[in-house]
Recover the amino acids of this structure.
């Protein structure tokens, strides 16, 4: 993100007050208050992407569509645009990709215009996410970005998208896909609610606090479960099973416990681990080469893990567009750069 915009609620706290004082014949003073509503932040400007067309083997029926969900955070919009471009570029049937974007209501029109001008042929819809659904449930975590309401929108995804959608791929905005997403879409779920790359022999003491481990009733939740971690930034979700299993409410219940007792450190991930750890459909690690943004504190450079790669994910504090703009990129950031559609001031001058 080239610059960090203030959220609407933060701006409300900075409204300027013009006080007009009028003195009457009785020396009484009348005070008039004029409130100035803040305008939406100026969004980055992006170059128009090429048109990507289906191959001859692609179908054109509803069953042929691949549904992808992402959030539209004004601070991460540059990353979202790069992710969408990478998905289209590497897809055999790009016109069959159906994007479901979640955004805050007061930015919806500007975001729609930005996406439409960048991807004129994109099949997409923007859904309003109500931050009041989750704001009172969020507990402060180790990094401010993890505490934003949109970071929790994935929990409510099944309640927002059309009921006709029974499977969806959720993707974070700080990644690029370098393979055909159809391969991930067709993963056999084997009756599971979530499919994702998982990493077993995880050290769960890193995710949960002493308050959790000292409570026998809470610890029982993990008894018998394989200690397997998965990153919620790349998930295939059986939306029908999610709805029927009332998993939104189950996540909210753990958020309530967290609010009362602080049983974990990291944002929206631990409730997923408490519910799904060791009980997801594991997919190949190539579909989430995560951690490229470094840790949550310093965002130091990291190298690629060995093995084939289908998706590169800059989870962690460091984001490739910020490091590239600062002229202090990590080597892996140059893998993201070809998908960057940001029209910088230098580009504008050249044109």
């Amino acid at each position: 993100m080239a610059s960090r915009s203030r959220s609407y609620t933060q701006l409300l706290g900075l409204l300027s007050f013009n006080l007009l004082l009028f003195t009457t014949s009785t020396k009484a003073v009348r005070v008039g208050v004029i409130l100035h509503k803040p305008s939406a932040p100026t969004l980055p400007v992006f170059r128009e992407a090429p048109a990507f067309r289906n191959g001859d083997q692609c179908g054109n029926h509803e069953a042929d569509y691949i549904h992808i969900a992402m959030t539209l955070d004004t601070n991460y919009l540059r990353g979202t645009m790069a992710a969408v471009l990478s998905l289209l570029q590497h897809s055999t049937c790009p016109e069959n990709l159906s994007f479901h974007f979640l955004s805050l209501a007061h930015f919806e029109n500007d975001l729609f215009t930005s996406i439409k001008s960048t991807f004129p042929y994109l099949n997409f819809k923007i859904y309003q996410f109500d931050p009041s659904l989750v704001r009172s449930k969020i507990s402060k975590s180790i990094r401010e970005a993890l505490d934003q309401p949109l970071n929790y929108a994935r929990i409510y995804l099944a309640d927002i998208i059309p009921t006709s959608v029974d499977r969806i791929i959720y993707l974070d905005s700080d990644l690029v896909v370098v393979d055909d997403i159809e391969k991930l879409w067709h993963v056999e779920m084997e009756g599971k609610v979530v499919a994702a790359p998982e990493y077993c022999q995880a050290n769960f003491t890193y995710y949960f606090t002493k308050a959790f481990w000292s409570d026998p009733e809470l610890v029982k939740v993990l008894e018998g479960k394989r200690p397997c971690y998965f990153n919620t930034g790349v998930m295939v979700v059986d939306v029908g099973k999610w709805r029927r299993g009332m998993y939104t409410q189950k996540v909210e219940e753990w958020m309530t416990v967290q609010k009362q007792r602080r049983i974990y450190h990291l944002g929206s991930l631990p409730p997923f681990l408490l519910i799904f750890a060791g009980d997801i459909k594991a997919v190949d690690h190539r579909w989430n080469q995560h951690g490229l943004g470094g840790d949550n504190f310093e965002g130091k450079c990291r190298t690629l893990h060995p093995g084939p790669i289908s998706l590169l994910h800059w989870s962690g504090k460091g984001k490739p567009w910020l490091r590239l703009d600062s002229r202090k990129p990590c080597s892996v950031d140059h893998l993201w750069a070809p998908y960057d559609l940001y029209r910088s001031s230098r580009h504008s001058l050249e044109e």
